[in-house]
Amino acid sequence: MTAIKAEWAKPVSWEEVLAFHPARARGVKMSGKAVLRCQVTLKRKLKACLVESETPAGWAFGSAALGMARTLRVLPRKVNGNEIDAGWVFFTIAFDFRPAKDAK
């Protein structure tokens, strides 16, 4: 299951990530990240996602990223210029808070 870095079909906004930020971590303004490995369908949807890593551990960032995965759109992998179904990709979701200067 060799995975390549995902190419976004639709960029992910900060607001989309914040909506999935784990509640306990959000309550204490803790940032974190999770790396997922998933298959991409020809319809640009993710399936069979696995959490490769999450930091810090124990704050549910991996679970949050898995929940978010169903809303993400990624370009299918290509082999010899042709899109393939169920090719493996990986990506990182960073659950960060905006710097104070950007807060509204």
Please characterize this protein's 3D structure.
There is one protein chain. This protein has 104 residues and is α+β, with helices and mostly antiparallel strands. The chain has a single domain, classed as TonB (TolA/TonB C-terminal domain, 2-Layer Sandwich). The protein is 20% helix and 33% strand. The strands form 2 sheets. It has a 4-stranded mixed sheet with strand order 1-6-2-3, with helices on one face. It is elongated, with a radius of gyration of 15 Å.
* CATH architecture field: 2-Layer Sandwich
For this structure, what is the CATH homologous superfamily?
A: TonB
Percent strand: 25-35%
The count of helical stretches stands at: 3
Shape descriptor:
elongated
The largest sheet is: 4 strands, mixed
- Ranges where pLDDT stays below 50 over 5 or more residues in a row are 99-104
Q: List how many beta strands DSSP finds.
A: 6
* Radius of gyration over C-alpha positions, nearest whole angstrom: 15 Å
CATH class wording: Alpha Beta
Quick description:
The chain is α+β, with helices and mostly antiparallel strands and 104 residues long. The protein has helices spanning 14-20, 23-27, 61-69; strands at 4-5, 32-40, 46-55, 78-79, 82-83, 87-95.
